[in-house]
Specification:
With about 90 residues, this protein is an all-alpha fold. Helix content is about 45%, strand content about 0%. It has a single domain, classed as Orthogonal Bundle (434 Repressor (Amino-terminal Domain)), CATH 1.10.260.
C-alpha cells in the first residue's frame, strides 16, 4: 500500500507524530514531491503495522537498500537488470 493510500482515511499528523517527522515533510513524501528518506522507511513500516512496507516507500531501489527483504512474504519481484549497452568502437 502506498503512503498516500494509507493516509486516505487517517490523519497524517498522527503518523508524523509517531515517527517524529514534521507533517509538512510527511505531506511531501505522500505526494511524491520528495522521496521518503531511507532512514525514515523502517519507522513508517513499524508505525503503520506493515500496512506500508519499505518496498512500497522505495519501489525503485528497496532491493538494493534492504537485500534481506528479497523473497520475503509480500515482497514484489525484483526487476531484471537492464542489459548494459554495448560500447561501439
Amino acid at each position: 500500500m502506498t503512503l498516500n493510500e494509507y493516509l486516505a482515511d487517517r490523519k497524517a499528523v498522527d503518523l508524523a507524530r509517531l515517527i517524529g517527522a514534521h507533517p509538512v515533510l510527511l505531506s511531501q513524501w505522500r505526494s511524491g514531491v520528495r522521496p521518503v528518506p531511507i532512514e525514515r522507511c523502517t519507522a513508517i513500516e513499524v508505525a503503520t503495522e506493515r500496512a506500508v512496507c519499505r518496498w512500497d516507500l522505495r519501489p525503485d531501489d528497496w532491493f538494493r537498500i534492504w537485500p534481506e527483504l528479497i523473497g520475503a512474504e509480500g515482497a514484489p519481484a525484483v526487476p531484471s537488470p537492464e542489459p548494459a549497452e554495448r560500447a561501439t568502437t
